[in-house]
Amino acid sequence: MKLEDGNKVEVVDSLVISDIARHKSATSCLQREDVEDGFYICDLGDVVQKHMKWERIFPSIEPFYAIKCNPSDVLLRTMIAMGTGFDCASKAEIGQMLRLGASPDRIIFANPCKQSSHIRYARDNGVKLMVFDNEIELHKIRKFYPDARLVLRTQTDDSASVCQFSMKFGAHPDSCLKLVDTAKELGLDLVGVSFHVGSGCQDANAYVKALRLARTIFDYGISIGFDMTLLDIGGGFPGTESFTVSVEEIALVVNQTVNELFHSQNFENLRVIAEPGRYYAASAFTLCTNVIAKRRIALEKQPDQENMPVKEAILKAISPSALVEPSFMYFLNDGLYGSFNCLFYDHAEVKPRLLKNRAKDAAEYTSSIWGPTCDGLDKIIDNCSLPELETGDWVVWKDMGAYTMAAGSAFNGFKTSTVYYTISSENLKLLDDYCSNGIPSVCFVYCDAKDPLAKKTFGCSPLSPLQQELKSATIL
Ligand SMILES: Cc1ncc(COP(=O)(O)O)c(C=O)c1O
Q1: Which among 94, 228, 252, 352 counts the fewest CB atoms within 10 Å?
Q2: Is 374 a catalytic residue?
Q3: Three-state SS for 332?
Q4: Is residue 208 domain-resident?
């Protein structure tokens, strides 16, 4: 079984994710040992489109992708090729980016509270830009990396965000100027200000408040001799349609405010960066899970169940009488300890979709959906209405790229799902505009050897295309 990312991207014309999912689930697919194993499909074209959109709506703000969100090698290689920077939070994340070929000056070490050895690692590998939010951290940086270029992270009003960080990170507005003084006293190089309005931001105004504070700190820093040139507006940008505020609305407010507060007349050498995570990763990944087991249970308690002896009640629950409408428990091969950790850590809401078409009038039953581990906590959906599923059926989950596989564990021996990468030929052409020399170590397998894009099939045969297989596959 292939557990880590493959580096092959299959080029498919008129890419329809559900067709690919049907194909992958219907065949004894090359990379999976067991045909029922869950898998992801990553549409790299979605990432290319997101990047183009970013450049359109934030023309003056450089994205430094927060790799914690989804550190897939293929995704990161694509981002390097498109010219983004990277927000890393640890030695391992920095190491991964350097191994993949990112330049150290395209990395910001954006964790305000760092292990000393990680600071030394950044120093030894030329990653100069790093974030701090307190005095003790400043002393640590002075000891281990006095030449670092420092960015002061401020606290924000993140009350309107799905995931909040201000209880843990960011200097309180009242202590920011004192920290600027301390940096000066210690002879350190303060270059800018950063903030994070919280992940899944639902209020564009949160950026405005944070930008105002940033301006105050800039003014003070400049007044005592710092060359303040970096403004980092963090993450928080939505990656799917499910948020109440759109990324376009945020862009409008942010661009306008940056222009007002940090006008180029006064801030000639200003560089503005952001640390988007979910914006880039969320919608590119679709997760396909298999129903590995099911239980039929009584829908409602029997009237006398309250006083029923325990043994009898259990028997009744797992073997309901024919008179009671059944409800079903479905067990999938990915769960809370795997990709669905997003329910717990990311406050995500997920919606099951069935791969097999059902008759329009198929009866629906009260159902619950569970992960594969032996823990009762491992529940994906408590209560939903579904047609009756059979063991072996596929359940598909869209928008599963952000904070899913990044934090999945192999608890109970259930490993994270394999990823298949794909891109449409139209999007490959767009990607080609960013990196005409290809992406090192990523192999695009295209079906037509005569096509000019076949030049991107580094080291791989352009034959055996998914597209050809799809043509002959039975689509349900
Ligand atoms: C410092 C930092 N920057 C950026 C991000 C990415 O945030 P988002 O996915 O909301 O864009 C995070 C997320 O935890 C973060 O902690």
Answers
A1: 252
A2: yes
A3: strand
A4: yes
Residues 21-54: tens digit of each pLDDT: 888 887 655 566 678 899 999 999 999 999 999 9
Average pLDDT of the chain to the nearest whole number: 88
Q: Is residue 60 part of a domain?
A: no
Q: For residues 71 and 408, what is the distance between their CA atoms, to the nearest angstrom?
A: 12
45 class by beta-carbon count within 10 Å (0-12 exposed, 13-18 middle, 19+ buried):
buried
Which tokens is 166 given? 């201000």
Do residues 362 and 215 both lie within one domain?
no
pTM of the model: 0.89
Catalytic residue among 113, 176, 374, 384: 374
Question: Which mutation among 68, 193, 203 tests ligand 1's pocket best, with the greatest number of atoms within 8 A of CB?
Answer: 68
Cα(110) to centroid(ligand 1), Å = 9
DSSP string, 166-223: TTTSSB-GGGHHHHHHHHHHTT-EEEEEEE---EEE--THHHHHHHHHHHHHHHHHHH
Same domain, 326 and 380: yes
Measured by CA distance, the residue closest to atom 5 of ligand 1 is 235
The count of structural domains within the chain is 3
Residue 256 in domain: yes
Q: What 3-state class would DSSP assign to 250? A: helix
Domain co-membership, 248 together with 116: yes
Residue type, 92: A
For residues 40 and 408, the answer to whether their CB atoms sit within 8 Å is no
